[in-house]
Amino acid sequence: MTFAPHEPPFRAELIGSLIRPQAIKDARQRHAAGEIDDAALRRIEDDEIRAAVKMQEGFGFRVATDGEFRRDTYSDSFTTHGITGLREGPDLGGTFAYTDAKGDKIAQRVPQIVDKVRWAGPTNVEDFKFLSSCVTTALPKVTLPGPAYIHFRSGRVNISSDVYPNLDDFWTDLVGAYHQEMRALADAGCRYVQIDETSIAKLGDPKIREGMAARGDNWEQLLDVYTDAVNALVDGVPSGMALGIHLCRGNKAGHWQAAGGYDAVAEKLFRKLRVRFYFLEYDSERAGSFEPLRALPDDKTVVIGAMTTKSGELESAETLKARIDEASKVVDRDRLCLSPQCGFSSSVHGVMSPAQQDAKLKRLIEVARDIWGA
Question: Under a CB-based contact definition with an 8 Å cutoff, are residues 110 and 154 in contact?
Answer without folding.
Answer: yes
